[in-house]
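Blinded run. Sample ID left blank on purpose so nobody reads anything into the name before looking at the predicted structure. Input follows.
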Amino acid sequence: MFSVNAANDTTARNLQEFEVVSERVRKEVTSTAPLFNLTNERMKTMGVTDISDALHRLPGVNIRDYGGAGGMKTVSVRGFGTTHTGVIYDGIVLSDCQSGKIDLARYSLDNVGSLSLIIGDNNDIFVPAKASASAASIIITTESVPTANDSLWHVTGQMRFASFGTYNPYFKVGKTLNPKFSFSVIGEYTHARNNYPFTLTNGKLVTRERRNNSMMNSWHGEINTRWRPTSSSTLDAKIYYYDNNRELPGAVILYNPICREELRDRNFFGQLTYKNLSLSKFSFQGLAKFNWDASLYHDENGKYPGGVLDEDYWQREVYLSGSAMYLPTDRLSFNYSADYIYNGMTTNQMEVVGPWRHSVLQSLTGKFKNSWLVATARLLLSVYENGAKEGEAAQDRTKLSPSVSVSVQPWQSRMFFIRASYKNIFRMPTFNESYYFRMGSTSLRPEDTNQLNVGLTWQYNTTGWMNSLVLTGDVYYNHVKDKIEAVPTNMFIWQMNNIDKVRAYGADVTANATFRLGRRQNLVFAGNYSWQRVQPRTSKLNPDYNKQLAYTPIHSGALSLSWENPWVDVVLHGTGVSDRYGTSTNLPITRIKGYVDCGATLMRSFKFKRNAIDLRFDLTNIFDTQYEIVADYPMPGRAWKFTVTYKIN
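Blinded prediction complete.
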């Protein structure tokens, strides 16, 4: 307590400058299920270079990366597989009814506000039913439009140059025209030759080669608008287009370096999001989306009749969703969501013509919260109706999936939480699995999963030299039954069957700390480590019984150390995984060596009144380590990237 003499209150005095640094409570700490969030600022502090690098910084994540700027990048979490991981882009789930795999290489970080990983269902219950229909979800939230009270023009121009003939211009223009309407326009183009060198070992013969047939040209554009009809409601609209025309280098095969494969991916979607977050007991959310996707594959090879193979696929999706949340008291809330999805596909390759699927998902969620406990429970009802214009259709399915999660704070004076969660979920067979030429099976059952998680989280803040410390630790057990795999019926014909059971158990640990070195100087550390055992458990007679699942490392982790200062910010970072196998039988010949990939980043910003210039230089794979994430697809060695960004605010 102190007092001020009123007579001296108007006297001019020079006060000593001081700085107050604090960190808000992170959602990772209070979440009832594992949640890991990377904001745009945190990714810069960690020296994250692209979407694949960002995912490597999340625990329990395995990446399939085929190398280079245009290489396909898919993600699986805790051994569930890529098709069990949903990707949510600005509130609406992305889909690929053909393969079930979302290529995250399509999405750059230049306009991303945050990237999150949720495993199971956390304590955010006001979500569409489809958002809870996966074992895990990657959530990408973009920096869409300026705020309502910001009347300035926001213009960003960026140019990026990188190794292997890569250049990447990007621009964004946004403005709030009046307190009720804002917009932004985004454009991006990427060209990459991707002809990076690698070492080829053939017995005692070691040669230096270069990737060929690797060039990529892609561009994407977005138009975002936000209308605020009332102070409590918003209507967001997005139009998105992506076009990538690339060559596919293929696997590195001895004595056969020639590859003429090409792939063009095109994607258009438009989506609407309406939210009414009123101060009353009811809130409402409505979503609508139309999605069109084309995948055009071309290959020239003498093994095909006529020497040419063309596989073309076109997908269409209509998605509608409505959610209503009711808060009868400050402690209790309920949410009901109902989604309808239509998926259709046409192609020149399937024996069954024009497969389609109607899906109806309904979820009912309850949440209780008081000063020391947060508990949620959800029931998801899924109804799938399959059909085809010609030929036999896949089987219809109906399934009820429960989930529950809880977080307990034993001591209110400390940011320490104990969390536990359970989720049952399943996934329908993809169109490829059900209908693909000679391999598909229309009688496939859905893969059914159960996941259990128990964890501890702790956040410590102080005004001392260690400003903040955040620790999380989780152990888990997952079980998948009726796993879908391609198995041979004879030497030449394979077919999709439900044959496998998979058990996964492991642990994830994360640590984040900020240390004050002095005025405007901080040292920021971030790290994660994962240990996981993912084992097929179908039959003891199978050669893969109790072996490690293909492409799944037992050990993986990442760390970064950043020195923030008034001159040049410096970041050192590294990611690594242990040995893996290219097959679940773990044959020595399929062993893929582990690796550690180290990098460094230098960043500096210059201010000119309301404008700014950001300079950034990245050096990746400093030690020029040759490694593979997917067998026979070598990753780039040492590489650089230089980015210049000019912002008018």
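Unblinding after everyone has recorded impressions. Residues 1-23 have pLDDT under 50 and may be disordered.
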